[in-house]
Amino acid sequence: MISIKTFFINRQLMIRLVAVVVTVLLLGIGGYYGYTKYYKKDSVKKEANITYKTVQEKDIYVRFVMETYDSINENYWAKMKEGDMARLFQLSLQKALDLKEVPVIATTSRSGVAEMLSNVISTGTSSLAKKQLVVNTVIIATANLEPYGRNGLFSQKQEKELRQNVSNINPDTNLYKNLGVETGASVDVVAKAYKEKAIVLAKATTTEAKEELKKITYANKVLTNEYNKKLYDQNKIEPTIFGKILGNTLYLSISKISPTTLSEIGMIVDNASTTPKLDSMIIDLRGNVGGALDFLQYFLGAFVGQNQFAFDLFHQGEYDAQRTAIGKFEPLNRYKDMAILTDNMTQSTAELTAATFKRLNMAKVIGSTTRGWGTVENTFPIESVIDENEKYSLFLVRSLTLRDDNLPIEGKGVTPDVDIKSPTFKEDLQKALRNTSLIKAVEEQIKSGPVR
Q: Which helix (H) or strand (E) holds 152?
């Protein structure tokens, strides 16, 4: 297997102006990769006429594991050698069986893995035992792919939860219930309930009361904004951005990135277009866990125009260039100076956003080195059915993202232009930023933390 620690890119990044059709990539919502490409069916699809890559794959349990083998080989970010793949599944099967000795494998090849699996699975005493064995084998195999803990086997429930997380939907939260009002209550009713509860909670000194006050303050902020309320009422989507004006600076705090983030930004920027003298912007990505990858192609496009080179994704030794997906958004033209705030919990798409704006000299990154979570994960359906009541999919790291110096973000993070921990922070900030309002706003927000 290829170690991320030894991965090094020796290539100069070039900006290319090439028109492309942009494919939308969402974290956790990947392309459809069926197993049907590995066998052929005749017109009546009779089982007897199906030709598998190995004879052992006539067994559905062997086929289930070999489908994951093929999916990893095709979709995992690092190109693995055949011997390494065979060893991975051999050791995973050993662990799943809790054996002291590794199972015998005739050849360290794909066919060798299929034969090894068949020999072991054929001794299974029941369908349930066979199912549990192959599921555990795949779980162990994916858990041992780098970066560790970021690949896995998902059930339908787990995939649904992932998709809800990407869309910023929390089915366990009811903002109306937090305020003690009926679901769908009007803005006036929400505001009144908040005011009554806040007066009582503000007087309390317990930790529970303080936490409750935070909950209802957030609920009030969401449900008294017509746009955010509509999103929440229709799909339980919570907002990802809160904005405010600090002098001549528009401040945007982005808690995570979801399919609605871009439209939220557009709404805030458009509303601020009537405010005079705004000339700078802060994008606060502290604590941002990332989200929809294609966000950056749209967000960057709003500044620089359509079909501009945005960033590269690294997959199995190849660079996949991503380009901006929309044209310029004119209300953004006034923001000549920009700062992006980061911390050690800024991750994923948020890190890539900071790295891209830094590389293009469009913004100065202020804060601390980001988390170093530079991977793009996707789900890949498994077509082999080993349980009539369950469907599985692989969750794999599909690509690595690159920072401004063209090295992987993974394990390294994005280094800020101005480090808040530096003893010369204030002097460095003055050198990096020339806009007085922006400098003052950055200092203020560094002290107060991100707005949520």
A: strand 152-155
